[in-house]
């Protein structure tokens, strides 16, 4: 992934500039642009793939919340001048995506959610994990994946540094609490755009029943499970993930309606 981060005022993002419609990818609470390396390479020419950095660590403290992240995304899309976007989110990024879709339905061509929060999630809890406990953090990061080998030392080191920085740790907790407060069960019927749900069968953070609930509550949605896969399918099983996403986007672009449920 040789693309360079771009900076436009307060917006930091990667953009491939492909010939097709904008495909915007949103990372989770501890995620980053590298989470979508396979998707960037697979879709880069046929879509304009964009991965914005969600400013969890840089928003003014009074704005650290899901609402603050949604406002940031809305300003970003407005600044870029896109008419309609395909919007995908993993984990907390899925939660932000849903809230954006509900507020700006006219901007949405399709929605893709994977291991999304918004209904139920079991993560690090409402307080910081034991400071300086590297093994604890290592186990938590490994639990994101079915295959612990996907959890690289670089990834563990990054999360460890985050939770041991008081300022960043506070922002993580504030954002996580905001997510817990924003249960979306009563709002999901407001999503009318074609929606793809991709879930890991071994997801311990947003278990498979969560994907099933999203499928039941979002009218025009379809759900696919990937075996031997946990909370980050786009990283852990990128080939199968990309196949589902490719097929879905092709059908949406062709104007086909999904089979409900």
TrEMBL record:
- Tell me where on the tree of life, at the top rank, the source sits: Bacteria
InterPro entries, alphabetized? AB_hydrolase_1, AB_hydrolase_fold, AB_hydrolase_sf
Q: Which SUPFAM superfamilies match?
A: alpha/beta-Hydrolases
All residue ranges annotated as the AB hydrolase-1 domain in the record: 22-147, 185-236
Protein name, entry field = Pimeloyl-ACP methyl ester carboxylesterase
| Species of provenance | Neolewinella antarctica
What is the organism lineage in this UniProt record? Answer: Bacteria, Pseudomonadati, Bacteroidota, Saprospiria, Saprospirales
């Amino acid at each position: 992934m040789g693309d360079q981060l771009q900076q436009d005022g307060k917006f930091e993002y990667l953009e491939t500039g492909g010939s097709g419609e904008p495909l915007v990818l949103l990372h989770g609470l501890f995620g980053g642009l590298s989470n979508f390396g396979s998707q960037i390479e697979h879709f880069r020419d046929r879509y304009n793939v964009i991965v914005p950095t969600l400013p969890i660590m840089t928003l003014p403290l009074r704005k650290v919340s899901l609402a603050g992240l949604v406002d940031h995304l809305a300003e970003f899309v407005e600044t870029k001048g896109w008419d309609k976007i395909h919007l995908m989110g993993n984990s907390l990024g899925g939660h932000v995506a849903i809230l954006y879709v509900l507020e700006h339905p006219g901007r949405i061509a399709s929605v893709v959610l994977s291991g999304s929060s918004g209904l139920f999630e079991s993560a690090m809890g409402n307080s910081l994990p034991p400071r300086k406990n590297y093994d604890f953090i290592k186990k938590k990061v490994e639990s994101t994946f079915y295959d612990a080998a996907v959890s690289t030392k670089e990834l563990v080191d990054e999360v460890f540094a985050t939770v041991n920085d008081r300022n960043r740790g506070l922002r993580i907790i504030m954002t996580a609490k905001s997510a817990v407060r924003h249960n979306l069960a009563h709002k999901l019927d407001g999503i009318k755009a074609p929606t793809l749900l991709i879930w890991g069968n071994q997801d311990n953070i947003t278990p498979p029943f969560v994907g099933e609930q999203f499928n039941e509550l979002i009218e025009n949605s379809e759900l696919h499970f990937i075996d031997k896969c946990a909370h980050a399918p786009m990283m852990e099983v990128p080939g199968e993930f990309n196949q589902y996403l490719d097929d879905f986007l092709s059908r949406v672009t062709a104007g086909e309606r999904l089979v409900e449920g």
